[in-house]
Write a structure and sequence with these properties.
It comes from Streptomyces chlorus. It is a peripheral membrane protein. It is found in: Cell membrane. Its main location: membrane. This protein folds into two domains: about 180 residues, Rossmann fold (3-Layer(aba) Sandwich); about 70 residues, Alpha-Beta Plaits (2-Layer Sandwich), CATH 3.30.70. With about 325 residues, the protein is of the alpha/beta class. The longest helix is centred in the last third of the chain and has 18 residues. The strands form three sheets. A six-stranded mixed sheet has the order 6-7-8-3-9-10, sandwiched between helices. A four-stranded antiparallel sheet has the order 2-1-4-5. It is built from eleven helices and 14 strands. A hairpin with a 4-residue loop joins β12 and β13. Bound molecules: adenosine-5'-triphosphate (ATP). The site of adenosine-5'-triphosphate has 11 residues, from β2 and α1.
Length: about 325
């Protein structure tokens, strides 16, 4: 297995009364994407700030590229790239000038800085806008430039904070392909995102944070298998909808009604339940127009995990979160 490039043990951060991170353990590896998911305020940015040495932990330990975040910040900063939600692009400068500026700030000589800028401009498909001000760029170009700027020093660890927010579908896929290319070359990526399609596509492993705690971690397949439920979708004629819903409910399969179709959706734990539902509907004399069994999506998993975490918090008073299932 590839080498561990980010590791945290019992990492905690308090801001006065607020515990933003509570004994967090994560691990990210070279050549892989770790997806960090969590609701607003879950602690994602706090974690990225500590790992990128912008702030210090209150307790616990963390290493990035083998260096300690508490004592070896300069070593870490030399080896990481950060693309934050607020772009680092200077709008008055051209794409090339932005890249040269970053390279010079990192200590490159003028010629080496220009060469690196040209390389990145080509790699990120920015040639057309290389010499005009970034203020004239489209959202996709600006995001690509932002990412290119975080890669000037060829980082071994890349922090991507919601990298495709606000991009159109084509620009989004372009950016995903760029990230996949970097990962193939061995970069470790820590990706925070609210976009579960993005996490599903890019992340090799996912850690879910809720109120500062890790509530689950695993591959997307593991999370789906352990947490998500499969669902049966039954289409019936509209005038049989009420009868079908009532028959299923009576037998312990309360459906959700989707008016489009119309379709009844029922969560199931085993595929054998599909046959049972057909029997129930046949017995109730409801003709079935369509039938499908669908796998859980990452959305289902995320909702199940975060609602389980909130329920635990409510039951146990102020202190939340028994980690669920997967580890
Ligand atoms: N400097 C600070 N002072 C006080 N509280 C803070 C500070 N920074 C973060 N917090 C609190 O810590 C908690 C975690 O915040 P954080 O920004 O890490 O969450 P997040 O998961 O990144 O959320 P979002 O998705 O909204 O960016 C929140 O309750 C937040 O209000």
């Amino acid at each position: 297995m590839s080498e561990v490039t980010i590791s945290t043990r019992g990492l905690s951060k308090r801001f006065g009364e607020v515990t933003a991170l509570d004994a967090v353990d994560i691990e990210a590896r070279a050549g892989a994407v770790l997806g960090l998911l969590g609701h607003n305020g879950a602690g994602k940015t706090t974690l990225v700030h500590i790992l990128s040495t912008l702030s210090q932990p209150s307790a616990g330990s963390a290493t990035v590229a083998g260096f300690d975040v508490r004592t070896q910040g300069a070593e870490i900063r030399r080896r990481i790239g950060v693309t934050a939600q607020h772009t680092a692009v200077d709008n008055r400068l051209s794409g090339t000038a932005n890249l040269v500026l970053v390279a010079r700030l990192l200590g490159a000589r003028p010629k080496a800085a220009r060469n690196r800028a040209t390389q990145l401009i080509e790699a990120f498909d920015l040639t057309a806008g290389a010499n005009r001000p970034a203020s004239t760029y489209s959202g996709g170009m600006r995001r690509r430039l932002d990412l290119a700027m975080s890669l000037v020093a060829d980082p071994v660890v890349l922090f991507l904070d919601e990298p495709t927010t606000g991009l159109d579908p084509v620009s989004r896929v372009n950016l995903w392909e760029i990230v996949e290319g970097l990962v193939r070359q061995g970069t470790a990526v820590l990706l925070t995102t609210q976009d579960l399609n993005e996490a599903d596509r890019l992340a090799d492993r996912i850690t879910v944070l809720s109120k500062g705690r890790v509530v689950a971690s695993g591959t997307t397949a593991e999370l789906k298998a352990e947490t998500g439920r499969r669902s049966v979708h039954v289409s019936v004629e509209r005038d049989r909808l009420a009868r079908a819903a009532s028959a299923l409910r009576q037998h312990g399969y309360p459906p959700t009604v989707e008016q489009q179709g119309p379709t009844l959706v029922i969560g199931v734990d085993a595929s054998a339940e599909l046959a049972r539902m057909v029997q129930i509907l046949v017995a109730a004399e409801v003709p079935i127009d369509g039938l499908a069994l669908s796998e859980p999506t990452l959305d289902d998993v995320y909702l199940a995990l975060t609602s389980a975490a909130s329920a635990t918090a409510t039951e146990s008073g102020s202190s939340p979160h028994t980690p669920v299932g997967v580890s």
